[in-house]
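Review session, final week

We close the course with one last complete record, chosen because it touches almost every idea we covered. It is asparagine synthase (glutamine-hydrolyzing), a protein from Actinoplanes sichuanensis with 586 residues. Go through it on your own first, then we will talk.
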Amino acid sequence: MCGIAGEICYGDRRADTEAIRRMLPCLESRGPDGAGLWDGGRITFGHRRLKIIDLSEAGAQPMTDEQLRLTVVFNGCIYNYRQLRDELIGYGYTFFSTSDTEVILKAYHRWGADCVTRFLGMFAFAVAEHDTGTVTLARDRLGIKPMYLAESPGRLRFASTLPALLAAGGVDTGIDKVALHHYMTFHSVVPAPRTILAGVRKLPPATVRVIRADGTSSERVYWEARFERTLDETDWTAAVRAKLRQAVERRMVADVPVGVLLSGGLDSSLIVALLAERGQAGLTTFSIGFDSGGGESGDEFEYSDLVAKQFGTEHHQIRIGQDRFLPAVQRTVAAMSEPMVSHDCIAFNLLSEDVAKHVKVVQSGQGADEIFAGYSWYPPLADVPRDQAVAAYAGEFFDRPHHDLARQLNPEWLPDGDVSRDFVAASFARPGATTAVDAALRLDSQVMLVDDPVKRVDNMTMAFGLEARVPFLDHELVEIAAACPPELKLARDGKGVLKDAARGLVPDEVIDRPKGYFPVPGIRHLEGPVLDLVRDALHAPAARDRALFRPEYVDALLADPNTPRTTLGANQLWQLALLEMWLQQL
C-alpha cells in the first residue's frame, strides 16, 4: 500500500520531473516509509512507500528491472505473489527482492497487460517499457485502489489522490455539471471516469489502459461478475463460507501484524471468527463509539465487546468525545480525494488515527451489503418486472428526483436532462443481470461500492499510513455472490445466505440483531459548532461566487437543519455543506 504518481508525455516532449516532486508530499501519508523518483525522459514516475511486504530497500519503488527494460510504480497488494513468483521462476526469471512489486514486473514481461487476470489482490499500477515508450495503467477488479488522471495536450498525469494532481498544477478545477447531478442524486457518488472537477478523471475499476509513445491509447475492461444463474451450486451456504474463508486467509499475507476493524456487525465479526478459526495468534481488534446526539446512540460496543470476548482478541474500544470530534471534521474533509457525504468518513478517520498507532494492516468488512443485498432498497425490487426496474431503483435509492433538483440547483448548473437516471437506465439495459435485484446489485457493486464505502475506507485509512484489506471484495467471492439466487440473499431481512454461512461461527446475538450502522450522531443531527462550520461554508465568499445552489434552498435548510432528509434519510444540509467545504480546501 503506497502512493503513486507519474507523468507520460507524447512525442519528443520531456516529462516535468519537478511537477512529480510537487505531487509526492501530498502522498506522504499513504507512504510514510520512503520516497522515490524515476526519470525516464518523456516518462517520470514517483512513489511514496508504506512497507508491508519485503521491508528491505530491495522492495523500494519506482522499481526498475534493467534486464527486462521495465519500470513500475504500484499501490496495493498482490496476495498470491508467492505462487506467481514460483511460477515465474519456473519460466527462468530471477528475482532480486521478495516483494510483490517485482512479481508485477516479471508477470508483465511474461504475459503483457493480461497479467492482471492472474493477480489476486488490490492494485493500481503503471508499467513503462523503456524501449517502446508504452505505458500500461491498470486498476483492480473492484476498484479498491484508486487512480486519478489529468490529461492535457501532449501529456497525461496520474496519481493515487486527486489533490496530488492539483499540486502538480495545470488542472481545470471547474465543476463538471454531469458529475454534480450525480453527486446530488447518487448519495454523493460520481461514477468513473468522471469526478466533480472537469479536469480530473479516474481510471474505472477492472480496466487496463495502454498508452503508446505517440499518445494514442486503448482501454479495455478485463473482468465483470455476471449476475445470472451461471453456477450449478446445490449448497450456496457452503460455497459462500468456503470462498470467504479463502478470502480472509489470502489477506493474512504480510511481513507485519494484521488487525481487524470490528464494528460489532455481522461482516466484521465473521472476519474475526474466520481469523480465529485459522489460528491467528494475538489478534488485535478495534471499535469506535461517539457521544449520543439527537436521540441516537453513538456506539455499538455491546456487540463488538461480545465478539472480542468470545474470540479472545486484544480489543481496543475507542471512545470519541466532542473534544476530538470537531477538529476531525475539517481534517476528514481534507483527506477526501472526492467529496463523500457519508458521516462514516469521520468515524473511519478517527478510528484510523488510533489504529495506526498499533498496526499497519487491518481487515475490514466493507462490501458485504453491496454483494449480499443487505440494504433497504433491495427488497422492494424483488417482485418488480425487469422493464420497470429503473423507475423502482430510482424511487428507492436516488437522493431526490430530477424535478426537485431543478428547484435546488441554480439553472446554469443543470445539465441537459436527467443524466443520472439515464446512467442507471444504460446500466440496467446491459445483458448479464437477470432480475431487477440483480441489475441493482451489479450497478451498486460497480459504482456505488467503489466510490462510496471502498473509497471512504481507502482515503481515511491511508491518511494515517494504514492499509485496509477487504475480504468481501475478493473477486472470486463476488462471483459466487453474483450468481447466487436473489431470494437467498434477500432472506432473513437481507444477507440471508451470508447469515447462514456465519451460523455456528459467529454468536447468534450478532447474526440475529437488527441491522446496524456506523453511528455518528454529530453529523446526522447538526447542531452547535458543527452547524456553525456548515453555515460558514455555505455563506463563504467562494460559495457565493460559485452559486451552485439556489439561495432560497440553502436558507430553508439552514432554518431547519435536521428535518429535510434524502430518500435514504441522510441530512440534506450536510450534503450541500460537505461539497462546499471540500471545494474550499482545494
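Two points worth writing down before the exam:
The longest strand covers residues 70-78.
The chain has a mean pLDDT of 94.
Good luck, everyone.
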